[in-house]
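Consortium newsletter contribution from the modelling node. Members have asked for a concrete example of what our holo predictions look like. Here is one, prepared for the IPE complex that several groups have been discussing at recent meetings.
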Amino acid sequence: MSSEIRKSEIVEELKLGAIPQHVAIIMDGNGRWAQSRGKPRIFGHQKGVQSVRHVVEAAADLGIGILTLYAFSEENWGRPKAEVSALMKLLETYVIKEREKLHKGNVKFRVMGNLERVPVRTRKMVLDTQQYLEGNTGLTLNIALSYGSRNEIVYACREIARKVQSGDLTLEEVTTERFSEHLWTDGLGDPDLFIRTSGEQRVSNFLLWQIAYSELWFSQVYWPEFRKEHFYEAIRSFQSRKRRFGLVLED
Ligand code: IPE
Ligand code: IPE
Ligand code: MG
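And here is the predicted structure:
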């Protein structure tokens, strides 16, 4: 049996179970993957783009609503200049090269983060792509770029404080729902499934507020080697979980 047929069988089988509406991934391990092959870290980032393609396709096939990918953290600005600019370049190439394919696949594109720090050229390309794919109604591919969750929360607090100060909001109106609306993820809902690759088991300033009740799944696989089957494995694990949200479930 060809691996493509086998994959579509797996997709059909998984679709019989609960499909997470929103999946968030920390794509980690590019540098270590490259270094373990005696290659520069940037080589790992280049290879990682292929994994993005595979996972976007798998998510769309499964009917997942939102796929949030952690592409670059605010802390990552502290990496060597050459690595940072290589990452920006890769992102530019990705959006230019993939735009049509994403459009054909009815994929919507969104970018979130402290974009003021992103080079003008890169920022323009990602925002143009966001605009170009705005009308699509399939999977939303949400890229976290120059993203830091603590800052996201601080900005939300400032915005809310401003509204309270000006009388646009009363203190009583500041609820968890209202707070969520001031985050960059407004309208996306919280991730149901949170994945991190490369064996690290930490959150690294990603979606701190939004993962309150996410199911966590960690993979040993370095991101450049992450393929559809690993993603399916995560979905399968998700389907075996009993989400209780603090309640008592009847058997
Ligand atoms: C993830 O891989 C990609 C980014 C953070 C941009 P890393 O670059 O963190 O690779 P490791 O974790 O050092 O192996
Ligand atoms: C998190 O990975 C950021 C991205 C994957 C974009 P890092 O590699 O930067 O995080 P730490 O340093 O392991 O916590
Ligand atoms: Mg890392």
